[in-house]
Amino acid sequence: FQSKLPKTGTNIFSVMSALAQQADAINLSQGFPDFECSPELVSLVNQAMQQGHNQYAPMTGLLSLREAIAAKTQELYGASYHPDNEITVTAGGTQAIFTAICATIHPNDEVIIFEPAYDCYAPAIQLMGGVVKRMELEPPDYRINWTMVRRLISSHTKMVILNSPHNPTATVLQEEDIRELISLTHKTDILILSDEVYEHIIFDGQPHRSMARYPELAERSLIVASFGKLFHITGWKVGYCMAPAWLMNEFRKIHQFNVFSVNTPMQYALADFLQVKEAYLGLADFYQQKRDYFRSGLESSRFELLPCAGAYFQSVKFNHISEDNDLLFAKTLIDRVGVAAVPNSAFYSKKTDFGILRFCFAKKQETLTKAVEQLLKV
Ligand code: GLN
């Protein structure tokens, strides 16, 4: 038997969460909130089920939800995406990313990704016979060197994958990056896959530079978003993709044979809940408080804190504390102080190890307090 992904093991989030569970450790590894979503959202699902919305949703997503997404995108980014042919509801961000890659990448097409990168990009590209062109970014600021990116471009370059706010580094794209991206892709057929699942978790008053804001980029972009991050419901697995009609048409050809459609009652609930703007506009402040608490708690620890401009991850450097590789150090941390983190080498194909761990701070106060207390013992 020939494996389709011979070098791929179980993803790091499942591995670290399982270790945390076995050891009864505080789980700051896998990124998910340990607090409840809004009870209103739960009763809206209940209501939808009671009202009999229990059969297939339309393949492309519930129209009222696509309309609500279009209205939000218009209001926030001044961009119009038509609910009929430019927005599709997906079973979470990961499915949207996989479908986007499946719909666009042919054998030998080259795709540029920036590492550390979220773990689902490269395998999807490889499965399509595409070639992953990696550029490694370095701590502490992980800035993209656009001159180097230009050197990676060839006549086979089909796509660039971006992720802002970024998992795991918590960096966000700056205006200069956008200018470079526009000039890089201008008059080319290069597509952009923009993973924007943390769009509302961005700190210190910075704007989210969605591809949707820039017509030159939007016309070649597939934008991926996630309700899991937006409303603390990662287990619902609902997200969406937005793209110009010609690209969305291709996306839907795959989507219909992959998941066909996404769970119906959840879509009813989300369509209603999306009308309450405060529910997502307050998200940045909500998480900024958690970031600030976690950072100030660790200030007197032995860890060195890296910057955190967005998403819900705080990276720390530990290589002045231990010479262990980051995976080993993460495992030892579970055993010694009962706190689980993700080793950042997991986000590099070559397992590049800068001695950095990623902690998720999307946790209730009680969890963060206990975690800080334990981490101060290192
Ligand atoms: N996005 C989450 C993280 O980065 C995990 C998602 C998953 O477990 N697949 O931790």
TrEMBL record:
**Record flagged with keyword Ligase:** no
Instruction: Please list the residue ranges annotated as the Aminotransferase class I/classII large domain.
Output: 24-375
The UniProt keyword set, sorted, is: Aminotransferase, Pyridoxal phosphate, Transferase
Q: Which cofactor does it need?
A: pyridoxal 5'-phosphate
* Signal peptide as annotated in the record: none
Please provide, in alphabetical order, the Gene Ontology terms of the cellular component aspect for this entry.
Answer: cytoplasm
* Gene3D superfamilies in the cross-refs: Aspartate Aminotransferase, domain 1, Type I PLP-dependent aspartate aminotransferase-like (Major domain)
Task: Name any one GO molecular function.
Answer: pyridoxal phosphate binding
Coiled-coil annotated residue ranges, if any: none
Q: Which Pfam families match?
A: Aminotran_1_2
Q: Which PANTHER family match?
A: FI04487P
Family as reported in the entry's similarity comment: Belongs to the class-I pyridoxal-phosphate-dependent aminotransferase family.
- The protein depicted here goes by the name Aminotransferase class I/II-fold pyridoxal phosphate-dependent enzyme
